[in-house]
Amino acid sequence: MIIWARLRPGFWLHTVLAAIPRASDANLTNTIMKNLFIAFFAAFALVACSDDDNSPSGNLISVEFDGQEVNFRNIQLEQVSYPAQGENPAYTEITVVATANGNVFSFFVIKGETGQDAVYDFSYATGNALYNGVDMQSNLVSNGDEQHLVGTFSGTMTNFAETASATIQITDGSFDIKY
Questions:
Q1: How many CB atoms lie within 10 A of CB 125?
Q2: From CA 132, how far away is CA 123, in angstroms rounded?
Q3: Radius of gyration of the chain (CA)
Q4: What is the pLDDT along the chain (179 residues), one digit of tens a residue?
Q5: Contact in structure between 105 and 61 (CB atoms under 8 Å)
Q6: Residue 48: left if φ>0, alpha if ψ -120 to 50, beta else—which one?
Q7: d(C-alpha 76, C-alpha 122), whole Å
């Protein structure tokens, strides 16, 4: 008997259930169940080790929110190109969105720009609160054709929906992202 299981496009796993004893239905059932368990365990292990992640290993955004360190490793990037308009040249904006423990942190950069304050529009969503960067400093040291963003940031983020405009202090913010 051969069982085929499709794991992902272009990849097939098959298991041959051979030498099935015919002595009794109980032995037959036990053997089939054992072989099916092994086949499904192997299939699960192969799927769990998929190399199709959207974020290459090593990517990290590390931030201290009011002294509490949060490391974001689930990082998505989107690039949108804008045409030249009048005297403004064409450019590509990169949106960086990172998640960790149900929290979302994001910011924007213009591809190719580096230096002080080249990172902008910081936001942080945690629980039901949304904080926006109002007094942020950044330094983007790598950003270009090598598709590698490296930089640091710090500052104050404010939740304007709160009655008293709650704030969060960001210290030791850094990112190292290959895309």
A1: 15
A2: 4
A3: 25
A4: 444 443 334 333 333 333 334 444 555 454 444 443 343 333 333 333 333 344 445 799 999 999 999 999 999 999 999 999 999 999 999 999 999 999 999 999 999 999 999 999 999 999 889 999 999 999 999 987 689 999 999 999 999 886 667 999 999 999 999 98
A5: yes
A6: alpha
A7: 15
Question: What is the phi/psi pair of residue 89, to 5°?
Answer: -75, 165
**What torsion do the CA atoms of 124, 112, 151, 105 make, to the nearest 10 degrees?**
10
**SS3 call for 101:** coil
The pLDDT value recorded for residue 2 is: 43
CB 28 within 8 A of CB 41: no
Question: At residue 33, what is the residue type?
Answer: M
How far out from the chain centre does Cα 9 lie? Answer: 22
Are 102 and 124 spatial neighbours (Cβ–Cβ below 8 Å)?
no
CB burial of 84-99 (b: ≥16 within 10 Å; e: otherwise) equals eeeeeeeeeebebbbe
The tokens for 82 are: 């804008």
